[in-house]
Amino acid sequence: GGASLACIAWQVTRPLKFIAQDMNAVARLEFDKVDDVLQNAAEGGHVGRGSMIREVAQIRDCFVDMTSGLRSFSRYMDPYVVQVLLQSQRQAQLGVARADVTIFFSDIADFTTITENVPPPVF
């Protein structure tokens, strides 16, 4: 009775605790803290810190997919911008806004002439 119930509760709560820890790490964009979980999933193996409870394993698998997508997204966008979006809990939207800006144009004397003749590795 009670021992069986405690065992089932442990099988549910323990993996959920690990999922919550990993979710907190991903929310801070600390992907290195969940790399082992993602690597196991990428190799088609058992998702790390798994569970015998199907629903808990499904949550873990969805989390792994979401984390992989977020990691890919953060590679193409400044991590600071991704962090600001995550912390604001707002969805990014395309838009245009009028703003006063200052633009600074500068030219180094003979820069173009010099760099046209310099091979890329030297430059």
Oligomer classification? single chain
The figure for the number of domains is 1
Radius of gyration, Cα only, in angstroms?
24 Å
Question: Beta fraction of the residues?
Answer: under 5%
CA distance, first residue to last residue: 75 Å
Structural class: mainly alpha
Give the SSE string. HHHHH
Total number of strands = 0
Question: Major sheet: size, sense and barrel closure?
Answer: none
What fraction, in percent, of the residue positions are helical?
A: 55-70%
Q: Return residue spans where pLDDT drops below 50 for at least 5 consecutive residues.
A: 43-48
Overall pLDDT level: 79
Shape descriptor reads elongated
Put simply, the count of helices is 5
InterPro entries: Nucleotide_cyclase (IPR029787)
Organism: Alexandrium catenella (Red tide dinoflagellate)
Protein name: Guanylate cyclase domain-containing protein
Keywords:
elongated, mainly alpha, Guanylate cyclase domain-containing protein, Nucleotide_cyclase, 123 residues
Folded structure, characterized:
InterPro entries: Nucleotide_cyclase. This is Guanylate cyclase domain-containing protein. The protein has 123 residues and is mainly alpha-helical. Helices cover 59% and strands 0% of the residues. It has helices spanning 2-27, 35-42, 54-75, 79-88, 111-116. It is elongated and about 85 Å long. It starts with a helix and ends in a 7-residue tail after the last helix. Residues 43-48 have low confidence and may be disordered.
